[in-house]
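This section describes the prediction task in plain terms. A model, or a person checking by hand, is given the sequence of a single protein chain and must write out its three-dimensional structure as a string of tokens. No templates, partner chains or ligands are provided. The sample shown here is typical of the held-out split.
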Amino acid sequence: MSLCALLTLVMAVALAFPAAAHAQVNGRVAVIGIPGLRWSDVSEHGTPTLWRLTREGAAGALSVRTTRGNTCPADGWLTVSAGQRARFPHSECALAPTPLVSGSSASVRDWSRLVADNAATSYKAQLGLLGDAVHRAGGCTMAVGPGAVLGAADASGRVDRYAPSPARVPAADWSGCALTMVEIDAVHRAHIRAGVDADGVPIPVSRRSRAAAATAADRQLAAVLKALPDDATVLVAGLSDSGTTPHLHVALATGPGFGPALLTSAATRQDGLVTLTDLTATALGALGLPQPKQAIGSRWRAEPTDAPAAAKVHDLDDEDVAAQAIRRVQPAFFIVLFGGQLLLYGLATVALRRRWAGAPASAPALTRRRILAGTRVVALAGAAAPVASFLANLLPWWRSEHPLPLLICSVTAWMAALTALALAGPWRRSPVGGGLVIAAVTALVLGVDVLTGSHLQLNALMGYTALVAGRFYGFGNQAFALFAVAALLSAAWLAERPLRKGRRTAALAVVAALAVVAVAIDGWPGWGSDFGGVIAMVPAFAVLGLLVAGRRVSPLWLAVCCLAGAALVLAISFLDARRADPSHLGRFWDDLVSGQAGEVIARKAEAMLRSLGYWPFTVAALGALCFLYFVLARPLRWRAALLQRAYRRGPALRPALMAALTLAIVGMLVNDSGVVVPAVAFSLAVPLTLAASVRALELDEPDGGAPSPPPTAAAPSAAREPRPNAAP
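The expected answer:
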């Protein structure tokens, strides 16, 4: 019945939105591509034309990521053509191929090969989409330069008018076509002239040569702007990388709707940041043409600002500086984070087993207490490290002359502050009190961040970067894993007080309330905008609620909860698809209706399987699981597990761990980051579990003497150990 109802709803929606009338071109657009141009190249005296456009128009940092880590000029032009990430196969970042010229028109060589190659990628880029849209609306296309032909060509690979350079364009032709694309390749040519070394590695261009190339490009830009009609919308884009290092590039817009402002779009939701695929949507919008669903970008919007040109250039270049800094230190951070946690597990294993399994009776009590206290402090500090990496972005550490030492100091300071907070106050006496503080701060920081624009996650050590361009707002997979497991642990441990008093209904109400808030923050398009996260969080919170209520969790119930999560995220996707500019959630609903969702799911599944090759994450996840099993769950000297002591002291700890494990497994299966999700989730859950277990041992020997046996007296019903069949 539910499937029939869904199909009926889809048909009703389709009938309610009849096909749009045939569109007509209403405007002129000039797209001027300057491959490789960065904001660090722009200066008041060296590039006066670009400086004036920055002052008078809308400016932004342009993310040019396509199908590869380093975007070549031909890749950038083809991406503009398709409105989707595209590539020029085997280009090696050479100059664009000279087109075939026939009279005043031209066509791309081997166009059918380019079309077939891109259709075979996971992005299914439809080359010629922009040119086709202009032709269907009765407009013509003009390309100036070989690269521009790749961007302006229609589905057959043809442009109506062509000139090899701006100087060869007849004056009347500048206003003859609705869509004009111009290639200014001075910056890229400087890199080609620099050549490669004996190993085939490109030789870096000197600062002087690059400045001269930017000045030459600026002069050509001035000549083009002078020739264009006054009513044209002008879009300037540094649409590719130069060299082997990815960067953010220049984006400028002038004309109707683009006064002094910073550029943004619904794709990034960040002032001063736009994407290359947005350029296609912006050109179509300026022409008054509808955007085909194959074009995934969003139109550039102008956010007015009174900032002078110098401030704009500095701030936009700063975006690239931050992205470069994160790109350099992020791999080392994960190795240190996960390596440190694995070291913590190993030291804790040795210390605890030596202390409790083989320590002589004459060992000083003070030493024993110090072992426990030190282990607990280190565990809490390790759990604080992930959220500290986000809080470090409250200071612009990347602007320092020595950014790496400042970043290390910032993360360390936040870790120390959070650890001190966890060990202070009345909650320090509880086995889970310190962990609750760390978990609650983690959930609060990440939740508030996505509610206020995701500023801490952009260019963060455990966030995302505009260079990769996988996400610009909301929860990335790493932040989702942290937020979700922190919310689960917080809900469980806040429910512990009523649970100890036997008030299961009140405890369940606490879990339900936090579940609603956490799932809403994670899944709503304007906030977390996380598709797979909702599917994982719903069954995880359901497991937590059932175990807190003393109910059995069967595989059938778990499957039903997963389906409930899928139904909820589809409902959110449906609502988002009704908006004028939907997010990726709404676009998935459109793909589902059109029958193309299978390709999206297959791409995500392929990425999930590839994630098993991310060895730091895989090792971290396996190490955490082994530690839980062999150290915390393995019987020790008194035939009572260390973890069992924590269970008796904290009745909500076991449900919290089972829910976190559910989240990690389901999250791994439904997110394209795969093994990254459990690795990051365990980086918070396992150290907090260790801290709770150690605190339970401390409470078991208040006088510092030999450890007492586990409590055997009858405990309140809410604190009793759950039945063996209560676990999934």
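For orientation: The first strand starts at residue 29 and ends at 33.
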